[in-house]
Design goal:
Elements lengths: L1 H33 L5 E10 L5 E12 L3 E3 L1 H10 L3 H21 L6 E5 L2 H4 L4 H12 L6 E6 L7 H13 L2 E7 L16 E4 L1 H6 L4 H16 L3 E5 L4 H10 L3 E3 L9 H9 L14
Parallel strand pairs: 2-4, 4-5, 5-6, 6-7, 7-8, 8-9
Antiparallel strand pairs: 1-2, 1-9, 2-3
The structure holds ligand C2E and magnesium ion (3 copies).
The site of ligand C2E has 22 residues, from strand 2, helix 2 and strand 6.
């Protein structure tokens, strides 16, 4: 009977594992040709100044629509790209597409805004990153000070190699942001060695902020610390006016989240930039 059960369990678990492995395999295989087949695209999420409602920047976010597998989450395919050594060509495509888009908006007469691009920590440690960024800036005509690179806290170490990459990037004139701030391993002390332009407070803190008093205290302290260190702050994942209002009271001036806009197409951004105010929200009534 035990043997019978064992057999059944085996029969029960095996298909599931195989399906997952097969899915992963198919994702890996198709990712290699996704760029060529033009299955990747970028959407852009506004970063909004609470006081004015102005869009001061956008974050470029990758999307992959596979003809058979459908929409695949970036969390899934970025991790896959890192695993199979595809992250460099993918980052290059993202950088080039985002910079071309920023230049196109400006050529269309729209106000200049910052373009933020995510850089995988795996790629950040690569010696070629600096030259890749330089090449893309040169080839697209992107103004360096309008490009912001978002890296997660895992690269924030006082490690010599990291520090010199940071310096080289700063020398290029691009901006640097720490993404998902507060969730990583970095000690606050390591911040003093870095010339970071912006810290993005992770959406998990924002999400819990009004439910859990500890999160609220942590956010208040993070914002105060950033202000004292003269880092810009962006709160990520802001979904309600109440969250926005609290953040503003704490001294956070810029937010990114569904309250203002989900990530949208370049055309949608152009429309929003045309009257550079995000309508449909009463945000700025707080500051009056
Ligand atoms: P991230 O860089 O922290 O990007 C913010 C994520 O939060 C995005 O998810 C965005 O759609 C989502 N978000 C924005 N506002 C809200 C909100 O109000 N509520 C909630 N619940 N979510 C919100 P997305 O686009 O699924 O991307 C997930 C992650 O995948 C990104 O997190 C980033 O780490 C990575 N990623 C996306 N595109 C790229 C890329 O081109 N390169 C690299 N290296 N990573 C990327
Ligand atoms: Mg990001
Ligand atoms: Mg983030
Ligand atoms: Mg993230």
């Amino acid at each position: 009977a035990a043997k019978e059960r064992g057999k059944n369990q085996y029969a029960f678990y095996k298909p599931e594992l195989t399906e997952k492995a097969e899915y992963r395999f198919r994702v890996e295989q198709s990712l290699r040709e996704a760029v060529e087949k033009q299955q990747l695209s970028l959407v852009y999420q506004p970063q909004v100044q609470i006081l004015t409602g102005n869009i001061i920047g956008v974050e470029a976010l990758s999307r992959w629509h596979h003809p058979r597998l459908g929409q695949i989450s970036p969390t899934e395919f970025i991790a896959t790209a890192e695993r199979i050594g595809m992250i460099k060509p993918l980052t290059e495509w993202v950088l080039r597409t985002a910079c071309n888009q920023a230049v196109a908006w400006k050529q269309a007469g729209l106000p200049a805004i910052r373009m933020a691009v995510n850089i995988s920590p795996v790629h950040f440690l690569d010696k070629d990153l600096v030259s890749l960024i330089k090449r893309v800036l040169d080839e697209t005509g992107m103004v360096p000070s309008e490009l912001e690179l978002e890296v997660t806290e895992s690269i924030v170490q006082t490690d010599q190699q990291n520090l010199s990459i940071f310096r080289e990037l700063k020398d290029l004139g691009v901006l640097l942001a720490i993404d998902d701030f507060g969730t990583g391993y970095s000690s606050f002390a390591s911040l003093k060695h870095l010339t970071v332009d912006c810290l993005k407070i992770d959406k998990y803190f924002i999400n819990d902020m009004l439910i859990d008093n500890k999160s609220k205290i942590l956010i208040g302290s993070m914002i105060e610390m950033c202000r004292n260190l003269e880092h810009k702050i962006i709160a990520e994942g802001v979904e309600t006016e109440e969250q926005c209002h609290t953040l503003q009271k704490f001294g956070c001036e810029t937010v990114q989240g569904y309250l203002f806009s989900t990530p949208v197409s370049p055309d949608e951004i152009a429309k929003l930039l045309n009257n550079n105010v995000v309508h449909g929200s009463s945000m700025w009534s707080y500051s009056r």
